[in-house]
Amino acid sequence: AFMTKYNLNPDARDPVQFVDDPELAYVMTRYRETHDLTHAVLDMPTNMLGEVLVKWVEAIQTRLPMCIGGALFGPLRFKSKQRSMYPEVLPWAISVGTNSKFLPGVYYEQRWDQNIEDFRAEMKIPEPPKLS
Question: What is the mean pLDDT of residues 85-110?
Fold first, then answer.
C-alpha cells in the first residue's frame, strides 16, 4: 500500500552510470533499488523532510557521499513547517541509522509477506514519527 500510495517502484530506476567496476555498479544498483523500500519500512513520505530523514539513515549506514550530502544539505530546501519539525524528528533518524540492522543488506524479495511491525522489530527500527 505504501509503494502504491507514493507511486514507487524499485525496478524503475535508471541504470547506474560512471561506475566501471561491475561489482561496484551492482552495489550502487542495489542501493538505488532498496532506497524506495527504505522509505516504506521507515514510513517516510517522499517529501523533502522524509527524504532527508531517509538520507540520514542511509548516510550513517552506508557512508556513501551522495547520502551524506543529501542529509547535510537537503534541509536547505525545507519549507517552514518542515524546518520547524526537523529538530524533533532528526534524533529518530540518527538512532535508526546507528542502532538498526543494515537496511541495504536486507533481502527484501524474501520478505514481501512479512508483517511490517514484525519486520521493524526484527530490524530494531523504533516507531516512526508521524510527518503528515
Answer: 96
Residue 51 has a pLDDT of: 97
Secondary structure (DSSP) of 40-78: HHHT--SSHHHHHHHHHHHHHHH--HHHHHHHHHGGGG-
Whether the Cβ atoms of residue 113 and residue 130 lie closer than 8 Å to each other: no
pTM, two decimals, is 0.86
Cβ count near 6 (within 10 Å) = 15
- Mean pLDDT in residue range 7-31: 77
Is 13 exposed, middle or buried, given 0-12, 13-18 or 19+ CB atoms closer than 10 A?
middle
Place of cell 510527518: 131
Residue carrying the nine cell digits 519549507: 79
Cell triple for 69: 550530502
